[in-house]
Write a structure and sequence with these properties.
The chain contains two helices and eleven strands. Helix content is 10%, strand content 45%. The N terminus and C terminus are likely disordered. The radius of gyration is 20 Å and the shape is globular. The longest helix is centred in the first third of the chain and has 12 residues. Strands 1, 2, 3, 4, 5, 6, 7, 8, 9, 10 and 11 form an eleven-stranded antiparallel beta sheet that branches. By secondary structure, the chain is mainly β.
Amino acid sequence: MKTTSLIFAVIMVLGGNSPVRADVIEFRDASLWSGAVAGSTLINDTFSNDIASAPSITFDSGVVSANSGGVFCCGDNGVSAGEYRNALGEPGSTASLLNTWIFPEPIFALAFSIRGAAQNGLEIVLDGESFRIENSTGQVPEFFGYTSTSAISDVSFRNPGRTVLFHIDEITFASAPVSSVPLPGLHWLV
């Protein structure tokens, strides 16, 4: 009984009773984001190949982009002329409600240049944290970058207000480092 209580106490002290929550940091400056991910292997997708509009597509980088909810409209969720384009709306609109990017392997960093989200804004959700994307110029691409302290397998875009049409001219992401370091002193539990 004492051994069981001791094991339980050790697990509780080491955080076994609470879920791990990631810290996600947003960058609006490309050079600061680049500094934060320096030394990482980056995957860059410039959308150089056209991909026909469909509810689900796969970018050249292996990222799956899927629209869901609402009404899928032709021309949304596709790649042409070096840009990814999509429209998201609110319930009752003629647009999908949610767009999810599923990465080929977990990532810890993501960056993109976006235009067209000026008037109505757009939300991006990474590891349960949401950030509002609003670019003041509308038609000039602006940089948005994110890093996380935990691995992220997907991100979602949603519209918190009226329908918004947006364009992204490239994405860059970094695979999450693989960590299999055991907790010190707990090898005897195995």
